[in-house]
Design goal:
Elements (H helix, E strand, L loop, with lengths): L2 H17 L26 E7 L2 H6 L4 E7 L2 H4 L2 E8 L6 E7 L9 E8 L6 E7 L5 E4 L4 E4 L2 E6 L6 H4 L17 E4 L7
Antiparallel strand pairs: 1-2, 1-10, 2-3, 3-6, 4-5, 4-9, 7-8, 9-10
Length: 193
């Protein structure tokens, strides 16, 4: 055995010992199979049906529906997958999506996670990759942590809710440009894990 081959076998033996397994010298050649850590099984996905945020919006969009499905893979992949689907909303409209402390006003702490845009039939779907299962806001000045276990989405343009609420509907800060309409739908009493 050459010195190089002996060194490769020694490194392989040390690596195998550290990983709690063993490898034969034959498997120590280039291109050998990697040792894989055993992954824990992922938790089952969580599905949350959202509800219309106010009576005027419910009257304006009586058949509006939205559902969020979260694949909880933070422990196995370091991130989760958040998919939002919506039907029978205002066509060709942008909405902003947030994880929030409380589903209804005053909402508390909030994290802007993305947008979706409805098509001409008022349908939309979008998927975001982020940590949802352990989402929180941290105030370092106070040393306080706030879990973000609720969901809400807002009209991205403050004018887009005027058809339901009139021209004097409130302008909110729930968009990247700090100018959004009202909350369209939220998760009500259903909390994310």
């Amino acid at each position: 055995m050459t010195v190089l081959a002996t060194a490769a076998v020694s490194v392989t033996a040390v690596t195998a010992a550290l990983l709690g397994g063993s490898m034969s010298p034959a498997s120590s050649t280039a291109g050998s199979h990697a040792v894989r850590a055993t992954a824990t099984a992922a938790a089952p996905p969580v599905t949350v049906n959202l509800r219309t945020s106010s009576a005027p919006l419910s009257r304006c969009f009586p058949n509006a529906r939205s559902q969020v499905t979260v694949s909880l893979t933070t422990d196995t992949l370091g991130k989760d997958t958040f998919t939002i689907r919506a039907w029978r909303l205002r066509p060709r409209t942008d909405f902003t999506v947030f994880l929030i402390e409380k589903a209804t006003p005053t909402f508390g702490a909030a994290e802007y996670i993305g947008d979706f845009t409805t098509n001409k039939q008022g349908r939309a779907v979008n998927t975001f990759t982020l940590i949802v299962e352990e989402a929180f806001a941290f105030n370092n000045t106070k040393g306080s942590r706030t879990d973000l276990n609720s969901i809400g989405f807002w009209f991205a343009d403050p004018k887009d809710d005027n058809g339901c609420l009139g021209g004097k509907s409130p302008v909110t800060g729930f968009d990247g440009d700090a100018s959004a309409g009202v909350q369209m739908m939220n998760s009500a009493n259903r909390k994310l894990p």
